[in-house]
Amino acid sequence: MIRVGQGVDVHPFKEGRPLVLGGVTIPHDRGLDGHSDADAVIHALCDALLGTLALGDIGHHFPPSDPRYKGKDSRFFLREVAGLLRSRGYSPHQVDITILAERPRISPHIPAMTAELAACLGIAGGDVSIKATTTERMGFTGREEGIAVWAVATVGKMASP
């Protein structure tokens, strides 16, 4: 049985923070604002994966009000979500992610992000699709106020031992 979920995450830029997307630190003059490392790619992906089994969202499992998650590397959340799926008999199959950002240029960092996400999920790099686009200077991403990410994930029932 294959199940599908989607996730969306948006974070504003903030001075004095590193920009982390897909588990990779990207050189930029600002990072994203958030309780953890504000990795919008991983947050959207976690929501997509959780959605496959109707398990709520990342904020439900890792509330921003909990001090344990302040500044946390979001790869921790992704590994935990993958473990939660596996504990329920499902494993990630394929993910498809679209990043909306006017700047910085994302495409040079896609191979590193792909490798990070595949490693966290325990899937092949060929099963991780990451694309980036601008909004042609329209809206908050076009004004370079933040970044938005859309993610879709499929999971499948694991074979019984």
UniProtKB/TrEMBL annotation:
Pathway(s) per entry: Isoprenoid biosynthesis; isopentenyl diphosphate biosynthesis via DXP pathway; isopentenyl diphosphate from 1-deoxy-D-xylulose 5-phosphate: step 4/6
Domain 2-C-methyl-D-erythritol 2,4-cyclodiphosphate synthase: 2-155
Entry's Gene Ontology BP terms: isopentenyl diphosphate biosynthetic process, methylerythritol 4-phosphate pathway; terpenoid biosynthetic process
CDD domains: MECDP_synthase
Protein EC: 4.6.1.12
Record field: catalytic activity: 4-CDP-2-C-methyl-D-erythritol 2-phosphate = 2-C-methyl-D-erythritol 2,4-cyclic diphosphate + CMP
Domain of life according to the entry: Bacteria
The record's free-text note on cofactor binding: Binds 1 divalent metal cation per subunit.
Molecular function terms, GO-annotated: 2-C-methyl-D-erythritol 2,4-cyclodiphosphate synthase activity; metal ion binding
Keywords recorded for this protein, A-Z: Isoprene biosynthesis, Lyase, Metal-binding
Binding site for 4-CDP-2-C-methyl-D-erythritol 2-phosphate: D9, V10, H11, H35, S36, D57, I58, G59, T133, T134, T135, E136, F140, R143
Residues bound to a divalent metal cation: D9, H11, H43
Cofactor: a divalent metal cation
Site (Transition state stabilizer): H35, T134
SUPFAM superfamilies referenced in this protein's UniProt entry, alphabetically: IpsF-like
Subunit structure, as described in the record: Homotrimer.
Function: Involved in the biosynthesis of isopentenyl diphosphate (IPP) and dimethylallyl diphosphate (DMAPP), two major building blocks of isoprenoid compounds. Catalyzes the conversion of 4-diphosphocytidyl-2-C-methyl-D-erythritol 2-phosphate (CDP-ME2P) to 2-C-methyl-D-erythritol 2,4-cyclodiphosphate (ME-CPP) with a corresponding release of cytidine 5-monophosphate (CMP).
Record-stated family: Belongs to the IspF family.
Protein name: 2-C-methyl-D-erythritol 2,4-cyclodiphosphate synthase
Organism from which the protein derives: Leptospirillum ferrodiazotrophum
